[in-house]
Design goal:
- By secondary structure, this protein is α/β, with parallel strands linked by helices.
- It contains 10 helices and 6 strands, in the order H-E-H-E-H-H-E-H-E-H-H-E-H-H-E-H.
- The chain has a 4-stranded parallel sheet, sandwiched between helices. Strands 1-2 form a two-stranded parallel ribbon.
- Helix 1 packs parallel to helix 2 and helix 6 packs parallel to helix 7.
- It binds pyridoxal-5'-phosphate.
- Pyridoxal-5'-phosphate (PLP) binds next to helix 5 and helix 9.
């Protein structure tokens, strides 16, 4: 989001000031900075606290805040629903799994589907699956425990660094919607996230850890019988793996070395049947 704000601000000749949590990888920050945005990395025990503080300061400093759960972002995400409707030739998936932090994405996506239904274009709604990292799962924890309020997490750390809103303002709405529309909710451990990232990459999709969470969540829900084998499930892949290069170290990937003289014999060894 910071990247697109920076890009559109540059195009519109507007000044952009982007606040990011300290855990944000440089690969995410650099594109914002090259567009000319001023980027401020804010040390705070929790991303929600940072947002809360900045929202409080905005009126007196004359800042127009655009946040992850703001109405403009939510409206924008309706487009994903419309595009999926087109790409699936009007078919409505049974489930859509969405990695969730500030809640803007899942809210926008569902809103898009509701508008399609209200317009008489579709006759049923997909059920959303709220996916969070176990280390920071304020909404999933609440839903699993049957609570009606978000369970705030503080100073939480996860390899899925894009999912770090500890006390999301949009969480309450999601808890209510989950009850009303039969949504599912699942969290995934750090090991499961890395395993998901590896599996998706080995299927041709290199995504960042936050994005990878959904596949393992769906696997667990299928194993528990919450999703049937013949249900159609869409996984929202929210971010490219290139946006978090440091996490690749965790996979201990092997790269072979050679020089020109050795390359032929190395290849012969590699290609010889064992
Ligand atoms: C890669 C990625 N996935 C998922 C999310 C969560 O989206 P939301 O904050 O709208 O819930 C984000 C949010 O920044 C993200 O960057």
């Amino acid at each position: 989001m910071g990247n697109s704000i920076a890009a559109y601000a540059a195009k519109a000749g507007m000044k952009a000031l982007i606040f990011v949590p300290q855990s944000t990888p440089g690969a995410k920050i650099n594109p914002m900075a090259i567009h000319g945005a001023t980027v401020m990395r804010v040390a705070a025990p929790d991303y929600s606290l940072m947002k809360h503080r900045l929202l409080g300061l905005a009126p007196e400093l004359g800042l127009r805040m655009v946040s992850g759960n703001g109405p403009i972002r939510v409206e924008g995400y309706k487009l994903t629903a419309f595009e999926m409707h087109e790409q699936l030739n009007g078919a409505v998936p049974d489930f859509i799994a969405v990695p969730t932090s500030a809640c803007g994405h899942i809210r926008g996506l569902f809103k898009g589907y509701r508008e399609l239904q209200a317009a008489g274009i579709i006759d049923r709604l997909p059920r959303m699956i709220i996916v969070q990292a176990e280390n920071n799962s304020p909404i999933v924890t609440a839903i699993k425990a049957g609570k009606r309020q978000v369970v705030p997490f503080h100073d939480a750390h996860t390899v899925a660094e894009a999912l770090t809103t500890g006390n999301p303002r949009g969480g309450q709405e999601l808890i209510l919607k989950a009850r009303e529309f039969g949504w599912l909710a699942e969290d995934v451990s750090e090991e499961e996230i890395l395993e998901s990232q590896r599996r998706l990459a080995q299927s041709g999709y290199f995504v960042e850890p936050a994005s990878a969470t959904s596949i393992y969540a769906v696997k667990k829900l299928r194993e528990r019988g919450k999703i049937a084998a013949d249900n159609s499930v869409i996984l929202m892949l929210t971010g490219s793996g290139l946006k978090d290069p440091d996490v690749i170290q965790r996979h201990q990937l092997k790269v072979l070395e050679s020089d020109l003289d050795a390359v032929e014999s190395r290849l012969e060894t590699l290609l010889s049947p064992r």
